[in-house]
Amino acid sequence: MAADVDNWHTRLRASGHRLTPQRQLVLEAVAKLGHATPEAIVHEVRQTASAVNISTVYRTLDLLEELELVSHAHLGHGAPTYHVTGVDPHVHLVCGACGAIQEISPERLAGIVGELRAELGFVVDMDHLTLAGRCAECLALGRR
């Protein structure tokens, strides 16, 4: 975690910001939780700093995303889910029946992504890509 904190500090300073205690707590919570909603992040942060409120977490996440320290994806109909950048890039597969989430390499979609760029000039934002469907288990059980 110390290497992460040094990297966060360097990246924030390079953009004219400081690594405040709240920012550090939010980044640490996102790193620890992996994929987490703002509500889960505020719950984790409050383990250390009980006075931090959800508004502070949302503002901090907005800034951290603007600075490309975190990214979000919409894994369902609710709040976005955040993760730190710099981890292996991945695409989310979300089962609409059981809610299971799988991650795959963006390389598995390279063909269609390349076609979209070549044919339409459209560049896919892989950091925010989520594919909804049904997992193999739910298909086998006939779940809708």
UniProtKB/TrEMBL annotation:
**What are its GO biological-process terms?**
negative regulation of DNA-templated transcription; regulation of secondary metabolite biosynthetic process
Listed GO molecular functions?
DNA-binding transcription factor activity; transcription cis-regulatory region binding; zinc ion binding
Instruction: Say yes or no: keyword DNA-binding present.
Output: yes
> Which cofactors does this protein require?
Zn(2+)
Q: Which Gene3D superfamilies match?
A: 3.30.1490.190, Winged helix-like DNA-binding domain superfamily/Winged helix DNA-binding domain
Which terms are listed as keywords in the entry? DNA-binding, Metal-binding, Repressor, Transcription, Transcription regulation, Zinc
So which domain of life are we looking at?
A: Bacteria
Instruction: Give the cofactor note text.
Output: Binds 1 zinc ion per subunit.
PANTHER family in the cross-refs: FERRIC UPTAKE REGULATION PROTEIN, ZINC UPTAKE REGULATION PROTEIN
Name the family: Belongs to the Fur family.
Record protein name field: Transcriptional repressor
